[in-house]
Each structure stands twice: as structure tokens, then as C-alpha cells.
């Protein structure tokens, strides 16, 4: 085989050097592996509540797995609409998520003019878990069971009252579902927050409340309130509520009214990114540290696939849409 003289090789290299430079310039830069910057979870509530606690506990563990900080961004207001809308309009790149709750499934029925289309603006990542509301009465209440309330309400239609932290909240709709399935008439008294509602419950201005486990945990422990039933389909895993029957067990078959927490990203987020977030979230919520930190919430951890969350929320939307319609609930 003939060999090229060294001088000829050098001439060829000099000839093709500019072309090689052009090819290098035209080649697209390699994409950085996801994630390569901090991730933001929008919590559409003020700091300090149950949703904030769960988000922060999960975010720490997710950040360790992903190798990037997970920052909690509290954006309360508008019945979770303000924070949720912020995520709906964010780039679909996996760096902005929303911690969705009960309101995510109910707002389409309560708010006909949402700034986003719930079923089109988001892609599911993972259902984190479900937790109960608790039907509570004050310690000196004459009602010792769910059946006592039903019996009294049927004898005195419209005279018994239940408090909530506001129209359209999980506490309100839990009460409306209770009324419907038990076939009784209760008077709903809305408040601007759980605190004032519980204060009036303790003071005797209202008869009962479907409160979150975290809001009434200390009052149950101190004996100032009594729990009659939990609203989930299963008994609570919380030590404080483990002996409290479900409302279905206690006299209202088929009753289920769960609070829940799930992660969504903007629609159009790449599937591999969603899969990575799902894996990190699953690892975070199944860790012992997470379970211990959220024990006071009575959270039933139930991680699954993005499709599991999508199916769950569709079911919740359909169920609560009927409750809202039948009870003629409006927020205007």
C-alpha cells in the first residue's frame, strides 16, 4: 500500500481544518442532565399548615435524591387558585411543581371561570397520600356517636350546626356529603379559617365540625374535643385516632371524604422528567423519616404512578361535582 509523504498529509490537514471548525460550530451543545438547577414546589397555602409541612418534609428528601435543592414556594390565595395558576403558566421543564390538594378537584365545580383548564393545564406526577377529616364535638357535648347526631338531626331538622373554615373547603363538603348520605338537615356555619371555627365549637356556638387531624390533634389529646368518626374509607394510622371508627362504620354506609396531596407539573413536561420526579417523590415518602414527621396528619401514604393520580383526581372531580350541584354551593 502506497504511503503519503508527510508534507502531503500536512497540506490535507490544513485544507480540512476550517471545515472541521465549521462543523464544530454547527453542532448543537449537549443538554445537561436533569436536574441541573433547583426545583420549586408551589404550595398554594400559607406556611405552617398541613400541606406546607408535608411539602417541606418531602422536599428535603427529594432534593437529596435529585442532587438539587427543592425549594418550597408558598403562594396562598383564591382558594389555591393563585398558586396553582402560577404553575399552570410555568415552563414545562420539570423545575416547577404544585402540591395539589382536595381543592384541585373541587375548584372546577365551584369556580366556573378558572384562569386555567384543570384537565389540560397539568400533568400528574404522583399521589402522595390521603388523610382524614375528623368529625369532632366538644367534650361536654350530648352527642357521643355519629348515630346520636343523626337521631337528633332527624328530630330537629336544620337546628344542629356544623362549622367549616370556609365555603367549598374540605370541611364544608365533608359536612354536605354527610347530610346527603345520612338524609338529615344540618346548618352550615362558615368561618374565615379553621382557628375561628374551632374557637366557636369550643365555645358552644356550633355543634360539630369536620376538622383536619392536624387542626384538632392537641385538643383531642387534651380532652377538650371528642372525635366521633374519621372521614376516610379506612381507620386512621395515627395513634391518636386509631380507635376512632370511620363514619361509614359508625352509621353512614359508603361515606368517604378524604383530604389528599398530589404533585403535578405543567402539561407538556417530558415523560422522562416526570418519571424521574415520580421516583424521587416515591423514595421520599416511603422513608421512615418522612412517615415520622407527618404522623400527626394521619396521612395514609399511597405513592403510585402518574396514571394512578390522574384516575384518582378524575374520580374526585366527578364525585364532588355532584355534591356541589346537589347542595347548590356557590362561592359568589
From TrEMBL:
It holds the Pfam family TctC. Residues 1-32 form the signal peptide. CDD domains: PBP2_Bug27 (cd13578). The keyword Chloroplast does not apply. It comes from the Bacteria. InterPro entries: BUG, Bug_dom1. Keywords: Signal. Belongs to the UPF0065 (bug) family. This is Twin-arginine translocation pathway signal. It comes from Cupriavidus pinatubonensis.
